[in-house]
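Shipment paperwork, digital attachment
Item: protein structure file
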Amino acid sequence: MRSKISVIGENGESVVTSLKAAGRADVTWVRGDAYADCAGSEVVVLAEGADVRAAAKAAAVRAAASVIVVATERFASDTSGALKASLFPRPRLFGVAPADAVAAVDAVLFARDETFTVAALCRGELGVEDRVETVPARVGRGGLRAIG
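Attachment content:
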């Protein structure tokens, strides 16, 4: 069975196009509030144009086992809002520079541990306690693997 990826956001076309070109997963582009379309996704990408809090909350309900990747220009602040709205554990929700979205999705789906600059909830790593910061981190199967 092929993996399913959902991209939520009115301006997610470039992410959708890049993911579809790779051809390794079924990709659904969710626009507006058609959040039911993300049901069963392994990865949900929150792209530009998404109401990040509403989309994260909806993805948490409809794709409860997914990893959420926030791929917006304001990925650090949007990651913080998405974490609060979704109540996901920190390994399963992180943010990247939109240009790294496709590579981060590939790392999650295909267990390719790669290092990215991400927005992640830090709990003592790199001297940062209990807040979302932009940090180097290893991403792979299941999402965020290690910070630092």
